[in-house]
From TrEMBL:
InterPro entries in the cross-refs: MFS_dom, MFS_sugar_transport-like, MFS_trans_sf, STP/PLT_plant, Sugar/inositol_transpt, Sugar_transporter_CS
Residue span, Major facilitator superfamily (MFS) profile domain: 20-470
Protein name, as recorded: Major facilitator superfamily (MFS) profile domain-containing protein
Location relative to the cell: Membrane
Upper classification of the organism: Eukaryota, Viridiplantae, Streptophyta, Embryophyta, Tracheophyta
A UniProt-annotated Pfam family: Sugar_tr
Natural source organism: Canavalia gladiata
GO molecular function: carbohydrate transmembrane transporter activity; symporter activity
Amino acid sequence: MEQVGKEDEKITFNRYAFACSVVASMASIISGYDTGVMSGAMIFIKEDLGISDTQQEVLAGILNLCALVGSLAAGRTSDYIGRRYTIFMASVLFMIGAVLMGYGPNYAILMVGRCVCGVGVGFALMIAPVYSAEISSASSRGFLTSLPELCIGVGILVGYVSNYLLGKLALKLGWRLMLGVAGIPSVGLAFVILTMPESPRWLVMQGRLGNAKKVLLKVSNTTEEAELRFREIKVAVGLDENCNDEVVNANSTQKPHQGEGVWKELLVRPTPEVRWMLIAAVGIHFFEHATGIEAVMLYSPRIFKKAGVTSKDKLLLTTIGVGITKVTFLVISTFLLDKLGRRRLLQVSVGGMICALSLLGLSLTIVDHSKHQVFWALTLSIVATYAYVAFFNVGLGPVTWVYSSEIFPLRLRAQGASIGVAVNRTMNATVSMSFISIYKAITIGGTFFMFAGISKLAWVFFYFFLPETKGVPLEEMEMVFRKKSRGKNVATETDPKQEA
């Protein structure tokens, strides 16, 4: 075990595991593109189809309501057909939805396509980080599991650039190409995903020990590490750690196919540590969107217009800046997750968000109450928006997906993660479908002061409820939360190197 630990210090991640995580995360690029491209496409859709503000809110938010359905279905689906084929299903749904939206002769067809894409988004958001977490070693799990969130950022940026470039085409053609072009990478992903290995943890749950060991040998840095991970997984599913059969009776493993048993263990009669895991997962997903990120990512052209940016080109260019900021700080976060840990990044991230949201609320309030353009307030609002996006994406954004995909025990992981994603999509839909109505009721500045207040609650929640998980093997997470449920300070007590 000491040898594995030393090996992990020299090699931060396995190249094959990295490649698998990248491919799995490609679904997240398409998911992010659907979010980013709609922010600019709505400007042209409103002009072409003549839809109202309420219809815009519904069009923006319906993706997340359907993603809620998709995420709940994805947990059970991935336990039945495997993690890999669940990603395949997500790519097929993206393709169908993109074709329908690209066709988009009217608002109704556009909504149907958006709904189909939404179910695909739910599948992708749930399964990509779970697959990455299950295929990576403890030392590189933060890096690899944050890749789906980074890819969402890349997709959003590509969507913004697409808005700017295709917005120059004829009105009826431009926005349809913006939405329909996502079908092309979806087809490619559907083929590439079939060349990937299945999650070794899912294979063990199916009793396919020989196949699982072959995958572990490829995704581990050393044979010793592969053997250690293999033994830990066998123990986690209820098998003898010394069992070396190629195939065992699947009934001898603690299979999560007994859906009612899993839901009962998660929601009806959870152990203290599982209850704490569920509180942590639901809480972090709730606050990710309750703090207002979707309002900024989806309605940034409207926010900048309120601040004083008027032309379409300048609005879309300023929005591209939001996407560049998001991707830049997501890249930074991928290298910090396994060095600084989840808790520290969360505390710095949310602290910065509170300051940025307060400044944004102040600057927009000044602009709103001024009869003439106040250049310094316009500049401050743009800087504060970028700062908010930067702080969010260096911590809260990626940590949410890493944390919720790694804390649940194997038998509960898929459906536990799906509950978190369902809460995430519910809050996303709530914010995206109510933002316009809220800022009309309490002013746009007041709305961002509200988000700053919610961010303060988030900081307190993260400080008291989320133990550190950096470097902890997946099979030892219950021990971490068992200590937390008994009131011990796991953040300072847990030393991954000592446990290794």
